[in-house]
Amino acid sequence: MDYIVLALIVCFCFILIYTRAPLTLLLTGCFRYNISIENEEQGNIRFSRNFLCFFIMAVFSFFIAYHEHLLSPLPLPLRGLPGPLVFLSLTGVFCVFFLFKVILLRIIGWTIDSPAFINFLGRTGQDFCILSGLIFIPFLILFSWIGGPSGYGAPIAAAVIASAGYLIYALRCIRLFLSAGFSLFFWILYLCTLELVPLGVLIHYVAGI
């Protein structure tokens, strides 16, 4: 566990040193639509965005793997595995899901002949994921220090932050769909098929709901 925490701290320091400027642009773009449009024209942001997404997925995997009330009981493929392997398995699942969604969005973009719009939509989701994860990190540290690995504060904070971030992201999606000339029906279809259903499956296995 200690070396995983150390690795995450090293990655966070790397982010602060080498990706500070792209991170500022990505986070600002979450609140200002025109900046998010301008960010699409900067190719150097893409590597930073992917690295930040991987870091956030690793943080959430660590939080889920070592919290006593999450993943309880463990899914059958993870039973009997030590904590580090559960962490690596969760990180791998998140990465596979991320790649699957990217590929699926590209296929949809080619199908409807709007690859630029669909890619922009996917990258917008990444930005809000990064924003929610970075806001959650201070709460994770605080509640872990106060209540230890079994406290309820961190899961509640994660649920509130994720819900707020997802709501803002959904509202941004409405603007993206309308700006591209699509109706709200396609927005609802997109959220149900590519957002809400996978999220429900994730909550089912993580929280046992």
Structure keywords:
mainly alpha; 209 residues; globular
The largest pleated sheet is described as: none
Tally of alpha and pi helices: 8
What is the typical, i.e. mean, pLDDT?
Answer: 82
Q: What's the β-strand tally?
A: 0
- List SSEs in N-to-C order: HHHHHHHH
Shape: globular
Structural class: mainly alpha
| N-C termini distance | 27 Å
CA radius of gyration is 18 Å
Helix content: over 70%
Strand content: under 5%
- Low-pLDDT windows of residues: none
Task: Tell me what you see in this structure.
The chain has eight helices and no strands. It has helices at residues 2-18, 20-31, 33-39, 44-66, 83-111, 115-147, 153-179, 184-207. Helix 4 runs parallel beside helix 6. The chain has 209 residues and is mostly helical. The chain starts with a helix and ends with a helix.
Topology:
Elements: H1 2-18, H2 20-31, H3 33-39, H4 44-66, H5 83-111, H6 115-147, H7 153-179, H8 184-207
Helix pairs in contact: 1-4, 2-3, 2-6, 4-5, 4-6, 5-6, 6-7, 7-8
Structure described in brief:
The chain has 209 residues and is mostly helical.
